[in-house]
Amino acid sequence: MAVIGDLIKKALDITGKIISEPEATEAQQNVLRKLLEKAKFTAFGKAYHFAEILEHPNLISEFQNRVPVHDYDKLNTEWWHYLLKGHQNVTWPGGQQYFAISSGTTSSNKHIPVTDDMLTCIRNAGISEITNISAFDLPGEFFTKQILMLGSSTSLIHKDDFLEGEISGISASNLPTWFNGFYKPGPEIASMSDFDQKITAIAEQAPDWDIGCLSGIPAWIELMLKEIIRYHKLENIHQIWPNLMVYTTGGVAFEPYRKSLEKLFAHPLIYIDTYLASEGFIAIQKRPDTSAMALFPDNGIFYEFVPFTPENVDENGLVRENATVHALADAEEDIEYVLLISTVSGTWRYMIGDTVIITDKARSEIKITGRTKHYLNVAGEQLSVTQMNEGLAVLEQHYDVSIKEYVASTVHENDQYILKWYVGCDKIPDRQKVADTLDAALKERSKNYAVARTRALKGVQVELIPEQLFYQWSQETKKKGGQVKIPRVMKQEDFEEFGLFVSRNI
C-alpha cells in the first residue's frame, strides 16, 4: 500500500505542477463576464440589464454601478422567495434542486440556493484541496488512508420539488464516485440526523477504519474524538488511528480549540484551514508556512471588498448604499474588509457576513477576521472577533486555562454601559482578576477600546462557566452538530436570555 501511496503522491505532485495558478485579476474579470453572460436572460439579469453591462468597456465598474449590494434579507425578499415557490430563471438559469439551510450565527431560517453549477465548483475546489495537500510534505502512505468528514446529515429534507439541508450534507450527498473508497463515516452513518447517535455509531465502528484525515468544525470534532476515546477506554485517538496526520478545519477560528484538541492526540497534526460557506467554497489553505487561505479566482465566484469602517458599514453590520467597494485587483493588504460575492448560485454582490483581511495579494490569500454582525461597537469599543480571540488567548496563557467558547455583549444597565462575557473555561480562577486581565489585553490590542474605557464603557464583567453549557444551549435552541456555530457576540436581549439559560442549568 505504501508503494500505491507514493504513486498517488507523485501523481498529485505532477498534477499540481501542470495546473498553474491563474492570474487573479484576469481570472476574476473572466469569471464576472461568464456569470453575467449566463444569467443575462434571468429575471434578475433583465432587471439589472446584464446585456448592457456586458457591452461596457469597464465591465467591473459598470456592474458595481448598476447592481446594488444585497444581504440575505434583501435578496430573499426581492428574488429568492420565488425559487421556494417553484419559479425558474430567477437569479440563475433553470430551476432549483437544493437549498442550503444556514445554521450560522445570524439567522436560523435562511434558504440559500445551491445550483448544479455551484456543486461543480465545490467539487473543483475539493479536487484543488486534494492536489494542494501534497505541498504539506506528507508521506506516501497518507494518500491511501481514509478521510472522516463530520458534517450535517446527508439525509436531505424533501420539500415539494426541492431538497434542503446544510451545505456540508448537500456536498457529502454529491461526492464523486471515486471518493467513496476513502470517505468515512460512510453513507449510512452520514445520513443520521441525531448528532449524538451519529458519534456513537462512529465510535462503535472506529476500530474498523484507518483514518488519515479529519474534516469538520472543531467543537464537534472534539466531541466526537472524546466519545471514541471514552468508548474504547483510550488515552488518545492515535491508539486507534495511528495514521491520523491531518485535520482540515473550518467554520470557526481554529486557534481557540488547538490546546484542548491536542490533548486528545499523541502528537500534533497538520492543520489545514478551509472556507466552505453555504454560499460556496470560497478559499483553502494552500501552503504550510501560513494559516491564510487562498481564494479561487477562477471557480465561479467573483469577489468584492468593502472597507470595514463606519462610513461604509452601518450599526447593524450592513453595507451602506454609497459604500466604497473594491474588486480584488484594487483591494489592499492588511485592511479589514467586508466580503461580497457573486456566484453561479445566483448570489449577486452578496454580503456573506464575514470580514477578512488580504494577507498576500500576489497569492490572493486572506484571513477571516470576524463577522459584520459579530462586531462590538455599542459604546465606541469597536472590537472585532479577532481582537476578542486574542484577548482570551492572553487569559489562557496567564491562568493556564483552556477557552474555546464564549459570548460577549455590551449591555446598558443602571445608566451605564458594561462589557459582559460568558466564557467557557476548564478552571474557575478569580473572575475579577480575569476581567481585569482581559480588559488590559483588549486595551493593548485596540486603541478604540482603550478610548471607550475612558468614556462610555464603564466596566468589564466575566462569568466563567463550563463549556458544555454552550453546547447544551446550542442543542436546545438550535441543532447540535454539523455546521452549527456558537455566536461570539449577542445583542443585549439575546445575551440576557442566554444568561437565564446559564442560571437555570449551572
TrEMBL record:
InterPro entries: GH3, GH3_C, GH3_M
Domain GH3 C-terminal: 400-493
Any one GO CC term of the record: cytoplasm
Domain GH3 middle: 298-361
GO molecular function terms noted in the UniProt entry: acid-amino acid ligase activity
Pfam families: GH3 (PF03321), GH3_C (PF23572), GH3_M (PF23571)
Official protein name in the record: GH3 auxin-responsive promoter
